[in-house]
User: What shape does this take?
Amino acid sequence: MVLALGVNSIRLHVFACASATIRGVRWDALFDDLEGQLAAAGSAELAAEVSDRSRRELARVRLSGRAQANLGAELTVRVAGVGPLRGALRRQGPDWWLLGEASAEHLVPTAAIEWVVGLSAAGRDPDEESVVAARLGLGYVLRAIARDRATVAVSLRGGETLTGTVDGVGSDFIDVAEHALGEARRAANVRAVRTVPVHALAVIRLV
Assistant: This one.
């Protein structure tokens, strides 16, 4: 009888140990599974947060900020009324780009740009954009051209090109005294003075 009780006690002890081991394995598996789920959820939340933050940051970037971060890049820019222009982005302002190629430089109002190929994803936050570049608008540049009495070729978004001298620059228009390339701006050489709204400008070239 004593022996039988001893055997039973041993069996109960072994069963208890086995049950404890099984429970331990189950708990370990349960916690491993939970930790795995939480890790996966955390990774998904982090990826979503990064993606959302990237979208918010991109939403703050203006085209001028993209241009500032891509100065020197080789671009293809389609301009309304002119077609694709290829060249390095040499300078930029809040509403214009200067594209340079071997034979010419093109001042392009950004309002005339239809698409661009070659911009990297980099972009300047508006708070980090150059103060000087932000003030150097298209009107400022056009007034400098008029002051210097430079001969220009002005391509319009309708497809026409004017040659001559910029006589004056208003808040939203320019006056172009039309004359042939190679001629000075003299009354005898001027065929007409044409007033052109700024929104009609596509490309300005110094010639």
